[in-house]
């Protein structure tokens, strides 16, 4: 990872960090102080994490939830005004554009605030016919074992 240019999404109970390429690189569940389910910030790109069994050789972001656009060239990232809803646009070399909207819901119902343990990722093609690869690599116990 070449820097810490990250967006924050959360609902006052859980939170996650999303990099400029729409990868969730940090998320502790079910609470802020919990074990990180996505922990790519701990490892060096391309090497995996020390003790993390089952990482694919050459996986540049083990412990991340990535949405990869084929032919990716650049990205743009911004928050919806006055919200914690993060929009990332991925641009491809063939004119393909993909929008990823990330948020953690929080809403009022029955006279109280609900903060479910849930990450929401909406993927929407804006231009062309984008080809997308999803890589979901959660880890537990601070990246020691791989999930079954």
Report on this structure.
This protein is mainly beta and 148 residues long. It has one domain. 0% of the residues lie in helices and 43% in strands. It is built from no helices and 12 strands. It has strands at residues 6-10, 15-19, 24-28, 36-38, 65-69, 72-79, 86-92, 97-103, 107-109, 112-114, 120-127, 132-136. The strands form 4 sheets. The protein has a 4-stranded antiparallel sheet with strand order 1-2-3-4, with no helix packed on it. It is globular, with a radius of gyration of 16 Å. 30% of the residues are buried.
Percent of sequence in beta strands: 35-45%
Structural class estimated from helices and strands: mainly beta
Biggest sheet statistics: 4 strands, antiparallel
Task: Compute the separation of the termini in Å.
Answer: 27 Å
Q: Tell me the helix content.
A: under 10%
Shape: globular
Topology:
Blueprint: E1 6-10, E2 15-19, E3 24-28, E4 36-38, E5 65-69, E6 72-79, E7 86-92, E8 97-103, E9 107-109, E10 112-114, E11 120-127, E12 132-136
Antiparallel strand pairs: 1-2, 2-3, 3-4, 5-12, 6-7, 7-8, 8-11, 9-10
What key attributes describe this structure?
mainly beta, four-stranded antiparallel beta sheet, 0% helix
